[in-house]
Amino acid sequence: MSLHYDLFVIGGGSGGVRASRMAAATGAKVGIAESYRWGGTCVIRGCVPKKLFSYASHVGEDLHDVAGYGWSLGGTPSFDWGKLMAAKNKEIDRLESVYENNVLAPAGVALHRGTAKLIGPNSIDLDGQTITADKILIAVGGHPTRLPIPGAELAMTSNELFELQDFPDSMLVYGSGYIAVEFAGIMQGLGADVTLAFRADKMLRGFDEDLRDHLTQMMINKGVTIRPYTTLESLAQAAGGIEVAWQEHGDALESQRFDQVLMATGRRPNTHNLGLEAVGVALNDKGAIEVDHHFETSVPGIYALGDVIDRVQLTPVALGEAMAFVDTHFKGKPRRMDYATIATAVFSDPSVGTIGLSEDEARAQGYEVEIYRSTGRAMKYILPDRNEKMLMKLVVCKETDRVLGLHYVGPDAGEIVQGFAVAMKMGASKADFDATVGIHPTAAEELVTMRTPAA
Q: Which value, to the nearest 10 degrees, does the dihedral of the CA atoms of residues 189, 194, 222, 439 take?
């Protein structure tokens, strides 16, 4: 039996689900295939469970703070990893069901469980069944990678951490990006002794230098051991854990045993076993699918979006790309995805929010800038006397007064920065910030009350 669709989507993650649902709303006949679970990386083993773990990791500090507000808790608080995992799994199961039964099916999208593979410019093999479509959209996301070193298979990636059965007393997190920094904070907050090591000089490459330095110091204050300029040589099974051989600045260090090792060394697009080579879909030098401004690949009728094209690996970007795809190809309103001034948050401890250009990026692009910077404790930490400071920074074009970059380290970074993202997208000036009446007392009001340039 052969099926034909106006649009067939390979991949049931954020981008694929949004594109299929919105295309179906235009009256198109749409089918979608997923080989694992509906919801993709973000829902199943990415943003959602990570944020739940992040919430859990802050509870210990919150319990410590209660004495500063006059509360007294009886007994000694304890943490149960198994209960957290069970609660997380229950929520992920619920969300997957929502995607399947409340999002896709009511929209009229035909759901297919199975592994889809291209066999022609308009043809797909789905576990032995042939499906044809006028348009095929590939939205299969990416996967975490491990370093090519002896014993690499002993390390976890973020995928395995979300299924970890026993909580480790000690953990090495290797990497310097979002995932490494986030899980270092999460596991430390839950009670593990965490070492964060990476080859670079600092964590979070590409972020503002003041932000990177401030976050590093705050994480050290919280007990995370941070080792820059460090390379892993090998991993070996040892009694009760994993023995790590490593170097620092090229010099061998004494090996060290950890209960677990997490490799957070990047992600690669899921372009294997899709039949791309057979139909001539071109990949770039990073293994991502090459697409034009309207997400069409080198083969007419085949499209791709999300992490598999490796432009900006963020769930809201995949959703935005999906909307641009549907507007262009099903609503007759061609438009490009706007990748400028994308706000992002890192759910580290403390958390990070950033929009626009770093100070170095602004200077490199030829702007003469004024820098506004403020540090201090959040009000909620004063009575508990918690040794944690916020950083707020604005990068302003001296000639036009436009705010080019906004950078924040502190509580609720994502919530605070999301609101400012609208203003930044609209081209807000420093004068606009100054004219805005702050909400007192809040942390965010500092972003509209800084008056004296620091540089």
A: -50
Domain that holds residue 161: 152-265
Per-residue pLDDT reduced to its tens digit, 190-233: 999 999 999 999 999 999 999 999 999 999 999 999 999 999 99
CATH number, domain containing residue 279: 3.50.50.60
Q: Where does residue 439 rank: exposed (0-12), middle (13-18), buried (19+ CB within 10 A)? A: exposed
Give dist(CA 276, CA 299) in Å, integer. 10
Backbone CA torsion sign across 378, 50, 158, 99? negative
What region does 60 belong to: left with phi over 0, alpha with psi -120 to 50, or beta? alpha
What would the pLDDT profile of 22-40 be if each residue is shown by its tens digit?
Answer: 999 999 999 999 999 999 9
Position 454 in a domain: no
Distance CA 53, CA 190 (A): 9
440 annotated active-site: yes
Residue 233: its H or E element: strand 230-238
Assess whether 85 and 117 both reside in one domain: yes
**Residue 69 DSSP symbol:** G
Give the CA radius of gyration of the chain.
24
Number of folded domains that form the chain: 3
Name the active-site residue from 64, 143, 294, 440. 440
For residue 241, report the phi and psi dihedrals to the nearest 5 degrees.
Answer: 175, -155
